[in-house]
Specification:
It is a single chain. By secondary structure, the chain is mainly alpha-helical. It has a single domain, classed as Butyryl-CoA Dehydrogenase, subunit A, domain 3. It has seven helices and no strands. The mean pLDDT is about 80.
């Protein structure tokens, strides 16, 4: 593959993945810095595009991992960036009471469960890609999602189970 072909594939991946990158950046750093973080991540992806290996995961997971890495580097946190998702990270377009309750309950989840829920249900990543972004096994993500769903069911009660 020529560098021109690789550049075209990266440009396509960035255009397709940019909304997910933006949602994840918003979750990590909030609305004031999300666009800057996405721009930094896109720039880093261009510089490091030769390191992308499709055998190790999807382009979207690779780009989201760069977003998380850039957030960690930018704010020099001693832990993974996803561990402190911004409190206003969950923007649920519906203004119903159920949506507000759901957002509040997700915010109350432990950091790893909250990150798995945001990436899987709000950024729409498959489990394998969530695992790549979080640096764990897919089984761990499934376990975190299972535990999160149980906690959300407990927090929201039976009235939300079939909504």
């Amino acid at each position: 593959m020529t560098s021109k072909q690789a550049g075209g594939e990266l440009a396509h991946a960035l255009s397709v993945c940019r909304p997910a990158m933006r949602r994840f950046a918003y979750a990590l750093v909030g609305p004031d810095h999300a666009d800057d973080l996405v721009q930094d991540a896109a720039e880093r992806a261009w510089r490091k595009q030769k390191l992308f290996d499709p055998a190790r995961g999807s382009a979207q997971a690779w780009l989201l991992a760069i977003v998380a890495d850039q957030a960690r580097q930018r704010w020099r946190r001693p832990h993974r960036a996803w561990q402190e998702l911004h409190p206003d990270a969950l923007v649920i377009p519906e203004s119903s009471a159920a949506a507000v309750d759901l957002a509040h309950a997700v915010r109350a989840l432990p950091a790893r469960q909250r990150a798995a829920v945001v990436l899987h249900y709000f950024v729409d990543l498959p489990v394998a890609d969530v695992a790549q972004v979080l640096g764990c096994a897919p089984g761990t993500v499934k376990s975190q999602l299972h535990d999160a769903r149980a906690a959300l069911e407990h927090a929201l009660g039976d009235s939300y189970a079939n909504d």
